[in-house]
Design brief:
Layout lengths: L39 H19 L4 E2 L2 E2 L1 E4 L4 E4 L2 E3 L4 H22 L2 H5 L2 H17 L2 H9 L4 H26 L5 H10 L4 H21 L1 H7 L2 H4 L10 E4 L1 H4 L11 H4 L9 H4 L20 H13 L6 E4 L1 H6 L3 H6 L4 H22 L4 E7 L6 E2 L5 E11 L5 E8 L5 E2 L4 E4 L4 E10 L7 E11 L2 E14 L2
Antiparallel strand pairs: 1-2, 3-4, 4-5, 6-7, 8-10, 9-10, 10-14, 11-13, 11-15, 12-14, 15-16
InterPro entries: 4Fe4S_Fe-S-bd (IPR017896), 4Fe4S_Fe_S_CS (IPR017900), Cyt_c_oxidase_cbb3_FixG (IPR014116), Electron_Trans/Redox (IPR051684), FixG_C (IPR032879), Ig-like_fold (IPR013783)
Keywords: 4Fe-4S, Electron transport, Iron, Iron-sulfur, Membrane, Metal-binding, Transmembrane, Transmembrane helix, Transport
Protein name: Cytochrome c oxidase accessory protein FixG
């Protein structure tokens, strides 16, 4: 059969139904039960767990000047960080902090890989805690695997129920602590016991608790593999001189089981005994022997277990170790690899980080704990008063960013004969905002009609270092 152009028509053969094959594009998740491991890096992981959680759970309970030391009071629009009182107008400092955190992450990643992920990331920390609870309730890895494969029974139901109950209690306490950073935690605790929390407080406690329960209890490595963007763009920060968890293929291959007394050279084998323990301890379930993979979070659990195996078979440690790709390929020593640490990328990150940190630090140090907003009274833009003087009324929003009451002297300048017709002093309580109506007058012939710039000067009585100058416009009618 041909087409209208004379070319042969292409026909599609019909495949019989019995020859069709269903191909699934979705790979079902295999549950990972990581094996417990002991060693230097496992100890450091638990040290970081204790440090981060003591800070997170303990910080809201600390007091400073008879108030909560760290409190982001959204209702009052004041943020307390020990002796520092910030307002929404100070949002720039939060921006600076986020930029510092971002460049710190870039710098640490360029130098030493994903140390944040492996030792301090909340996902890693809470997964470690949940795994510890699971181990205490259900047993070690072998016992958990047997429990997973066994049929439902009273023992299995009891262990699973206890485990989930402990997970839920821990998650709710985590959610309560999180909300305690945004509402006074002692009041929050009293309201919780009385069941009198507001709807938003209940929502965020359960929401954050549910997120902790789901991420650390069920999703675990799925968050690191598929949800966290860091796993995807880490390659842009890595190079061949970045310290990462590496497997020495030249030394380890060919791998294979052997007797402890056997000579691996005589058998034509490398140092790897193919025990697969490095895979069993990995929280993301990868085989580090396949090289650098984006799923590797740099926790170094495989380093600890491999060193333990090397000790048992009498081989030198370091088959799996923290090293660089250039270091492994060229057989460099630690000192040689450290010399390559100060490369252009690292120097640029360091310079930018130092500059931003210095700028934010100086800005906070030189910050005046007084803020003033000048708002014109729109009810009367300008008016004539006694003796023909011209008067404008302004509203000053004075924010006292200290934790002691302050008395401020108000002055005005900018036009001949300009003066205040209202009280020149005002008292503002600690961390409070007070609106003050200020009447400003000038002589009849002091200025032509139109708008004229003036300046308000507000100074703390007894502390000349605390002062603010704000510009305004004085209107003279025609």
């Amino acid at each position: 059969m041909t087409t209208a152009t004379g070319k042969p028509r292409t026909t599609i053969p019909i495949v019989p139904a019995e020859d069709e094959t269903m191909v699934s594009l979705y790979a079902s998740r295999e549950k990972i039960q990581p094996r417990s491991v002991k060693g230097l890096f496992a100890t450091w992981r638990w040290v970081m767990v204790w440090i981060t959680q003591l800070v997170f759970y303990g910080l809201p309970w600390l007091e400073w000047n008879a108030r909560q030391a760290v409190l982001f009071d959204l209702e009052a629009r004041r943020f307390y960080i020990f002796g520092l009182v910030l307002y929404p107008q100070d949002f720039i400092y939060l921006t600076g902090l986020l930029v510092i955190c971002a460049f710190s992450l870039f710098l640490f990643t360029a130098v030493a890989g994903r140390l944040w992920c492996g030792f301090a990331c909340p996902q890693t920390v809470y997964t470690e805690i949940f795994l510890w609870i699971e181990k205490k309730v259900e047993g070690d890895r072998a016992a958990r695997l047997r429990l997973d494969q066994s049929a439902m029974s009273a023992v299995k139901f009891g262990k699973r129920s206890l485990k989930h109950a402990l997970w839920i209690l821990f998650s709710l306490w985590t959610g309560f602590t999180f909300v305690g950073y945004f509402a006074p935690i002692r009041e929050l605790g009293a309201l919780s016991l009385a069941g009198a929390l507001g709807p938003w407080q209940w929502f965020w406690i359960f929401f954050y608790g549910f997120a902790t329960y789901g991420n650390a209890g069920f999703m675990r490595e799925q968050v690191c593999k598929y949800m966290c963007p860091y796993a995807r763009f880490q390659s842009a920060m890595f190079d061949r001189d970045t310290m990462i968890v590496t497997y020495d293929e030249q030394r380890g291959e060919p791998r294979g089981a052997r007797s402890k007394k056997a000579d691996p050279k005589a058998l034509g084998l490398g140092a790897c005994v193919d025990c697969t323990l490095c895979v069993q301890v990995c929280p993301t379930g990868i085989d580090i022997r396949k090289g650098l993979q984006y799923e590797c979070i740099g926790c170094a659990a495989c380093v600890d277990v491999c060193d333990d195996v090397m000790d048992k078979v009498g081989y030198p440690r370091g088959l799996i170790r923290f090293s660089t790709q250039n270091g492994v390929a060229n057989g460099w020593s630690t000192r040689q690899m450290l010399r390559r640490a100060m490369r252009p990328r690292v120097l640029v990150y360091t310079a930018i980080l130092a500059a931003i940190t210095l700028a934010v630090g100086l800005s906070l140090f030189l910050r005046t704990p007084l803020k003033v907003d000048v708002i014109r009274d729109r009810g009367a833009l300008a008016r004539m008063v006694e003796q023909g003087r011209i008067e404008n009324v302004f509203r000053l929003q004075i924010m006292n960013a200290t934790e002691v009451p302050q008395r401020y002297a108000i002055g005005v300048s900018g036009l001949p004969g300009i003066a205040l017709a209202s009280s020149p002093e005002v008292e503002v309580l600690s961390t409070e905002v007070r609106a003050v109506a200020v009447r400003v007058q000038i002589p009849p012939d002091a200025a032509s009609s139109g708008s004229h710039p003036i300046q308000f000067d507000i100074r703390a009585v007894g502390d000349e270092a605390i002062h603010v100058s704000e510009k305004a416009a004085f209107l003279v009618p025609r």
